[in-house]
Amino acid sequence: MNRVSFSASLVGLILLAVLPLRDCHAADQPNVLLILADDLGYQDLGFQGSPDIQSPHLDRMAGKSIRFTDAHVTASVCSPSRAGLLTGRYQQRFGHEANSPPHPQGMDRSEATMADRMKSLGYRTAAIGKWHLGATDDQYPTRRGFDTFYGLREGGRGYLYDQVRYDKPGNHRAIERDGKPVKFAGYLTDVLGQQAIDFIDLPSSDPFFVYLSFTAPHGPLQATEEDLQRFQHIADKRRRTYAAMVWAMDRAIGKVMDHLQQIDQLDNTIVWFLSDNGGATNNASSNVPLAGHKGIKFEGGIRVPFLMHWSGRFQAGRTEDRMVSSMDILPTSFAAAGGDPKVMSDGNRPVDGVNLLPFLSGRDDGVPHRKLYWHKLWFSAMRDGPWKLIYVQDYGYALYNVADDVSETSNLAARMPERTEAMVADMNRWKQDMAQPLWSEGTRWFKEHSKNHIRIIEGGR
């Protein structure tokens, strides 16, 4: 036998030995579906207490999920929030503080994404919808661990195909499939949900990781006439359109969940649902009972609806009140897939997210996070248990107890100087360990968000 034949035979024997183990291991690995809404108001779902918006599919999902009531994203605006979500790390560690990285900036190419991590465990991966982590080809999702991408590279866009405004060559908000512009028919939210189903149905014995990143209900406010008719009881036309957009997203999610049930994969799929930040001032959303909105450090900007549905593992309808972060989704999913979250960290690149499985299973009765931190350019915040500190450049500090005062109505900084000073020192130590921001934002955002922070601190809602 010559060397080539012997080598080929040896490879064949190795594959024969490994493949049965790989198939057995794959059968034990749950699929992972990460669903992200865009600029969704904290109150604006049925299970969140909305008085005027219906979300029957998400309500049904919530009734069979673990619902986290003290859950946060890592930023109150889109791009840095997504960077923290997909790396499991404070995005400030790699300079991704500000929103909308200008061309050609994007998320640090040396950072491993959730797709990279899941792919290392044998998963097939897809990103569907809004990317917003860099518009250049070297930042493209298929260069960041995803096998395939269907969606837009940046920001928000209209919900119908529009070759004049959005869907023209070179526009980073055009819909693409793996780098090539594509036409689509119908309402974009429905299209994205169907794309997720189509990927799930591709023939494969490998488990899947799907990142389904809706543009809804981010502006522009645009809904179908049929969906608008359902919300004629809402007098405010903007709120009516926004409600119809949430309804469409709920419908698309329901179709994906129903499909997983039909193919007998729902019990073997971890489904996460959350928003990238709080509701915005320009999309008629409601963050009640929270103060603030997208772009600022009050709870309305960073506390979000947050569900984990894994009916094959956890009992239905649980409420979890311990503080968690969007950064926890990666290490938790990685651990559930058979990986060791410890291997994701090294001395220079710690993963800040926590594997939630020991806490959810009862093996650990402690807290996933005692402290969490936020910072973007001119504004900072931190949590230490129930205590919340907010810093506004050129103004100073505010202190709240969000366990007693979730609406952040009573600033305790002057009455509790020792606690305030201790948290200020803690937050500053954390900021010293972060990298310098790689880009900034226009000063108009400082002026607008500073004004809104101060208004709320001084008693305006």
Automatic annotation (TrEMBL):
Keywords: Calcium, Hydrolase, Metal-binding, Signal. PROSITE patterns: SULFATASE_1 (PS00523), SULFATASE_2 (PS00149). The keyword Signal applies. GO terms for molecular function: arylsulfatase activity; metal ion binding. The keyword Transmembrane does not apply. Pfam families: Sulfatase (PF00884). Its EC number is 3.1.6.1. This is Arylsulfatase. Belongs to the sulfatase family. Residues 1-26 form the signal peptide. Residues 30-338 form the Sulfatase N-terminal domain. The gene is atsA_23. InterPro entries: Alkaline_phosphatase_core_sf, Sulfatase, Sulfatase_CS, Sulfatase_N.
